[in-house]
Task: structure prediction
Amino acid sequence: MAVAGAGTKIKSIGAATSPGLGAAMFAPAVTYIGLLIAGPFMLAIFYAFSDARIGSTGLHYVGLENFRSILQSPSFRMALKNSFVFTICTQIIVIVCSTTLSIALEKKFRGRGFVRFLILLPWVAPISLGAIGWKWILDSIYSVITWVLVWLHIFKPYDTPMWLGQPHLAMASVVLVHCWRLIPFSTVIMLAGRTAIPKEIPEAAAIDGAGFWRTLFQITIPMMTPIISVAVLFGTIFTFTDMTVVYILTAGGPFDSTQTLPSFAFATGIQGSDLAAGAAISVFMVPVLVLIAYFMLRVAHRAEVT
Result:
């Protein structure tokens, strides 16, 4: 009877204190979301429907005028196209490379821990420092890559490519640096997905005579589709909303050939002092990302069901 009474008392105390404890544990997350995400987002929506400018004291409601103005801008349309090209090319390269690395790093070998550390280093290091290093590597005069190509007699000393000064090469360089940044993150996700696959399934396939490629495309990849969808979803969001690499390497140039929506919003709203137009560009990205997230989550859900 005493034990039963003590158990009832503990349950009543837990029931009385659990709501307050739960609210206290959720408070930091709610505060973070409210101050750093919800607040700026609502302010951006408010600015997008106004004529806000840096240094202006007046503020008036203008409706959809900012959205109509940016949709008619050739620079905005180029930035939108570049954003999709930048994101799609990056994700294709990242998924292929991370899948290859996850296959290689799954097997035990001497120095595997050190190799994993080196692969994760680009994701751990500050992206600004990495981008500055890549800007030096791709410099038109002091580029290490150019020096090696000249040493191999692939290019002449006075006829070298300008990696960040020619439109197509600049976009390729930005994609390369962003892939360097995202591959470690995607590799970790792929490794987690591969370790979750029961080892009995590939072993049974090998006994039945299935080779490496058949096992990879008919067993491993289909079973990892939910994990791949999550990796693509996070990678797409990180890429579509990132402006650090573009801003440090090219600042959107040359001739807006690497300008993406985040960098164009920064250039318009902060550098160009037109807060309303910059906010409208930023808000425009929200429904695009929501549709992408919805599609990828549907793909992951269907893969889990099947």
Summary: The radius of gyration is 25 Å. Residues 2-48 form the longest helix (47 residues).
